[in-house]
Amino acid sequence: MLEFQDVTLSRDNITYIEKLSLQIPDGSVYGIFGMDHEARSVLVRSAAGTFRPDSGRILADEEDVYAPDSESYRFIGFMGQKPSYYDKLKVEEFYDLILTMYQVAGRNRRVRMEEVLELVGLTEFRDAYIEQLAHDQLPFMSLGTAVLHEPAWLILDEPFEMINGEARDRMVNILAYLCESGISILINSQMYPELYGFLTDLAVIEDGRNMIHGSIEDVFEEITNKSPVSMHVLDKMENALAILKLNPLVERVTVVDRDVLFRFTGDEREEAQLLTQLVASGALIQNYNRDRMNLDDILRG
């Protein structure tokens, strides 16, 4: 399990994440979304060991990622937004260097090299200099770098930013294969259509805090239920407000002239019951509308 315990992340007097706690189970493909691109990126980078928290702890399989004697780097692979490589090296030379860093030796070294080159589609480019690779090949080379040492966790920061729809499909297929092979995945990304059937869980980060988290179905339902309701009341405003005040599922009521705006956290049946009560109270309601949040806009950030 990957766990954030009361984590605060800041730099240069800017607080990106504040006292966030989150548990990401083994075997999940966990997406991080929200409007704040930098906060999302900082969060996943902190899990990869590249952005130290101001306070709190980050545990990977119960080991503190930032402990002085931590060896968590051995079972975490990280693919950043901007691929890191020596472009004067050939692809195979660069992978060989990474394997040396992780002390992968003997027959396993050669076997793993071949497996990863095939996985990311670079077998025929093994002798090409990195600077000669096409722009959309670099993310795949970077992904290969992240999984060469066979990590238990793969952490990805905007892995689809440099590639188009067809390449995104290919990237998602590779990630799905890795997940089926036993690798758990934490991913910061905009919500592309290719991801809808791939993610198992997600968290939406708002104002540096964990806004909503859980399975995709649960999160979508919760966000939808928190969409604001607006209604225009022609008469008996006091009756309508009394009904809203008594309902425990109604939050944040705002009145401007004859317009009422509020948040309703119940389901469709409970909302229908609320509307029935409003009409029965004698309030003359001209218009009642739930302004459904655009989930794509929220998740795309």
Note down, in words, how this protein is organized.
The chain has 301 residues and is of the alpha/beta class. It folds into 2 domains: 2-222, Rossmann fold, CATH 3.40.50.300; 226-300, Alpha-Beta Plaits (2-Layer Sandwich), CATH 3.30.70. Helices cover 34% and strands 30% of the residues. The chain is built from 9 helices and 14 strands. The chain has a 6-stranded mixed sheet with strand order 6-7-8-3-9-10, sandwiched between helices. A hairpin with a 2-residue loop joins strand 9 and strand 10. The longest helix has 16 residues, at 165-180.
Number of strands: 14
Order of adjacent strands in the largest pleated sheet: 6-7-8-3-9-10
- Overall pLDDT: 90
State the end-to-end CA separation: 26 Å
CATH class of the largest domain: Alpha Beta
Instruction: Give the helix/strand class.
Output: alpha/beta
Low-confidence stretches: none
Backbone shape: elongated
